[in-house]
Amino acid sequence: MSESQDIEYKSSWRDEYLKWICGFANAQGGKLYIGVDDNGKVCGVADSKRFMEDIPNKVRDALGLVVDVDLMKKNGLDVVRISVDENPYPVNYKGEYHYRSGSTKQLLQGAALTNFLLRKTGKNWDALPLENVSVDDLDKESFDIFYREAMRSGRMSADDLKFHTTMSPALNIIRFLKMPFAKLFLTP
Fold first, then answer.
1. 30 with 7: CB under 8 angstroms?
2. 40-46: long-range contacts (C-beta < 8 A, 24 or more apart)?
3. pLDDT in the model for residue 163
4. What residues does CATH 3.30.950.30 cover in the chain?
5. pLDDT level of residue 132 (50, 70, 90 thresholds)
6. pLDDT tens digits for 7-23?
7. In CATH terms, is domain 7-125 a member of 3.40.720.10?
8. Are 71 and 52 in contact (CB under 8 A)?
9. What confidence tens digit (pLDDT) does each residue in 75-106 have?
């Protein structure tokens, strides 16, 4: 069997493989086999008893996860299987977020990291709070374009424009309420 979205082979253990476990936890879960080379050929591991004790503790201490670690015999050789469940919350390894994509481990950065964190926490960018916004920070022309297009598309009615004319006093409280981005446009 070859490596896939949920299977990774390593001929021996190195602590850096905690990144792969992190990646599985952040994706759909998976299994890491120690004692199998990249081509799926069993090479076995020496001192498998030590792995059975060390790996669960290393995973718990580094990632805050409890994983199943099983000893298997393949072709008379010891193979350690680490089974990782998908985690509902973001998992990081030393401040880095890894993700399993296909048969690769990806380091999430930039927009990919932002989108991942928002998705894992069940949030959207437009639900994030605005901090320290005042009326002076807002562009009236942008509001005019938004309302015109919303009216044209039928997503807003004339009654909705009442907010538009009384917007200025209401926006002063945004700074204190930490109003979400989207609510800025939807509050009557």
1. yes
2. 40/1, 40/2, 40/3, 40/9, 42/74, 42/75, 42/77, 42/79, 43/11, 43/77, 44/74, 44/77, 44/78, 44/79, 45/12, 45/13, 45/77, 45/78, 45/79, 45/80, 46/78
3. 57
4. 7-125
5. low
6. 999 999 999 999 999 99
7. no
8. yes
9. 999 999 999 999 999 999 999 999 999 999 99
User: Is 38 strand, coil or helix?
Assistant: coil
How many residues are given for the chain?
188
Residues 8, 105: Cα–Cα separation, whole Å:
10
Name every residue whose Cβ is closer than 8 Å to that of residue 98 and which is 6 or more positions away in sequence.
19, 20, 22, 23, 26, 105, 106, 107, 108
Tokens coding 74: 């393949």
Give per-residue pLDDT as tens, 12-67. 999 999 999 999 999 999 999 999 999 899 999 998 889 999 999 999 999 999 99
pTM, to two decimals = 0.70
> Nearest-CA neighbor of 108 among 19, 7, 15?
19
Report the greatest alpha carbon distance in the chain.
79
| Parallel/antiparallel/unpaired status of strands 68-74 and 97-101 | unpaired
CA-wise closest residue to 32 among 105, 88, 136, 141? 105
